[in-house]
Amino acid sequence: MDNSPLQVLTIATAPYPDQRPGTSGLRKRVSVFQSRRNYLHNFVQSIFSSIDLRDRQGSTVVVGGDGRFFNRTAIEVIVQMAAANGVGRLIIGHHGIMSTPAVSCVIRKHKAIGGIVLTASHNPGGPDGDFGIRFNTANGGPAQEAVTSKIFQISRTIEEFAICPGLRVDLTTLGRQTFDLENKFKPFTVEIVDSVESYANLLRNIFDFAALKELLSGENRIKIRLDAMHGVVGPYVRRILCEELGCPASSAINCVPMEDFGGQHPDPNPTYAVDLVESMREGQYDFGAAFDGDGDRNMVLGKHGFFVTPSDSVAVIADNIFCIPYFQQTGVRGFARSMPTSAALDRVARATKIELYETPTGWKFFGNLMDAGRLSLCGEESFGTGGDHIREKDGLWAVLAWLSILANRRQSVEEIVKNHWLKYGRNYFTRYDYENVDIDAACEMMEDVEIMIADKSFLKQRFAVEDKVYQVEKADNFEYTDPVDSTISRNQGLRIIFSDGSRIIYRLSGTGRAGATVRIYIDSYEKELLFEDTQVMLASLATIALKISQLHHRTGRSGPSVIT
């Protein structure tokens, strides 16, 4: 057996112009990573080169992915390149799998310099699906724009990368593996860890597991249904909810991670989580939840399929936040929501006199507030909810937060939400997604809408649909000044705000798999009409939104791909 040090090579390469990380890193079809020579290598080298050499030498980096196709191939490349770039230790999830919340947890626990997350989140997987790679910084959260811009600039001029091609890691065996490299004084170390246990330990310090166990397996237990959608969170659900908290194994479905997510779209919304929605409608389960591919998003359902919007979900958790022992100890520093998310959370913040922040879409904005000690709970309308225990949205944390509320209130999901509406009024909210739209047509439409709403004559303009009249109070392209470091984020979405507080928002999403995704958000507050159908209540505003944008005409679409 050859025990000589492993060779480190420097390989010439050529840059690609399209490696700008979006809000969720670099996402492309798998075929792009497979067919373009050194495409993955270039981006990985750009990540490592963005870190100062003095900080990189001997550092610890966490690596984990959602188990989708190309995950293992990418990890092999990352391991070889991390060693060659001076990283001292890699911590990798067993079999290369680690949920995005767990990656954040492990980064923070081990004081790592950062982590590389391999996921395309809720996008389809498999050989014909998507793959993604993202860098999280030392706080455990997505890299700030200054970091991603630096990565992108390096990727545009890269000429070479460093790699140790002979290095092979066994991802199937827990424990430490060491490797001697030429011209390196210290061995390179790889630790294969049980990320479920690290993450479970964190949750035990946040929630009352004894109360949750009584709720889920005691004499007056409730019946729940959890759908992991063949994503990474399956093993976490089985270990924590079933083995530790006593749920029957049959409560958890689609819990085996699969490279193609069982051929399904791992997006926890009523359109794609069909298995869960149908089983909940039958009425035998009291609580249901679904999770996305990498475990950071969640959908909550009550008995008979009662749907809790993500905007309402974070507002209800905020109003019942002291049902969670963690917040009894830490107190509540602030609430936050992304700009497109409904204003339901604002009403709780106002009533409780807790500071409310409205940020652009992207969890990194929340992370900055958390690091500054200004934020405890936050959420996005895109099925993301989380607290300041980590710096990522956290699907399983949100579910345990809801179960804590159920254990404390001893009411059904529907009763809790409807009581919330009676107390605060209701924000009717919907989102229309137009996926895979021609990018030129989408950008042209957005530019024309911005020109229209920027005209002074647009203010005070009235729009009438049947018996309803809406008058424009404010219109702009949302701009955010971070209260922590004063950085300014411009062009974060076109907003039309009417005199009654109703809002229409247009955004181009950065998380789609091909072409452009145009999103229209509609939010309208009602103090009295609390139990009407959302689409019926918002039909007039939807008509106005389509009239202003001429979206169907401009894109050739007759309707949205997804409605949530």
From TrEMBL:
<protein>
    <submittedName>
        <fullName>Putative phosphoglucomutase-1-like</fullName>
    </submittedName>
</protein>
<dbReference type="InterPro" id="IPR005841">
    <property type="entry name" value="Alpha-D-phosphohexomutase_SF"/>
</dbReference>
<dbReference type="GO" id="GO:0000287">
    <property type="term" value="F:magnesium ion binding"/>
</dbReference>
<keyword id="KW-0963">Cytoplasm</keyword>
<feature type="domain" description="Alpha-D-phosphohexomutase alpha/beta/alpha">
    <location>
        <begin position="329"/>
        <end position="424"/>
    </location>
</feature>
<dbReference type="Pfam" id="PF02880">
    <property type="entry name" value="PGM_PMM_III"/>
</dbReference>
<dbReference type="InterPro" id="IPR016066">
    <property type="entry name" value="A-D-PHexomutase_CS"/>
</dbReference>
<dbReference type="GO" id="GO:0004614">
    <property type="term" value="F:phosphoglucomutase activity"/>
</dbReference>
<keyword id="KW-0460">Magnesium</keyword>
<comment type="similarity">
    <text>Belongs to the phosphohexose mutase family.</text>
</comment>
<dbReference type="GO" id="GO:0005975">
    <property type="term" value="P:carbohydrate metabolic process"/>
</dbReference>
<dbReference type="InterPro" id="IPR005846">
    <property type="entry name" value="A-D-PHexomutase_a/b/a-III"/>
</dbReference>
<dbReference type="InterPro" id="IPR016055">
    <property type="entry name" value="A-D-PHexomutase_a/b/a-I/II/III"/>
</dbReference>
<keyword id="KW-0597">Phosphoprotein</keyword>
<dbReference type="GO" id="GO:0005829">
    <property type="term" value="C:cytosol"/>
</dbReference>
<dbReference type="Pfam" id="PF02878">
    <property type="entry name" value="PGM_PMM_I"/>
</dbReference>
<dbReference type="Pfam" id="PF24947">
    <property type="entry name" value="PGM1_C_vert_fung"/>
</dbReference>
<dbReference type="InterPro" id="IPR005844">
    <property type="entry name" value="A-D-PHexomutase_a/b/a-I"/>
</dbReference>
<dbReference type="Pfam" id="PF02879">
    <property type="entry name" value="PGM_PMM_II"/>
</dbReference>
<dbReference type="InterPro" id="IPR036900">
    <property type="entry name" value="A-D-PHexomutase_C_sf"/>
</dbReference>
<dbReference type="InterPro" id="IPR045244">
    <property type="entry name" value="PGM"/>
</dbReference>
<dbReference type="InterPro" id="IPR005845">
    <property type="entry name" value="A-D-PHexomutase_a/b/a-II"/>
</dbReference>
<feature type="domain" description="Alpha-D-phosphohexomutase alpha/beta/alpha">
    <location>
        <begin position="198"/>
        <end position="303"/>
    </location>
</feature>
<keyword id="KW-0479">Metal-binding</keyword>
<feature type="domain" description="Alpha-D-phosphohexomutase alpha/beta/alpha">
    <location>
        <begin position="19"/>
        <end position="160"/>
    </location>
</feature>
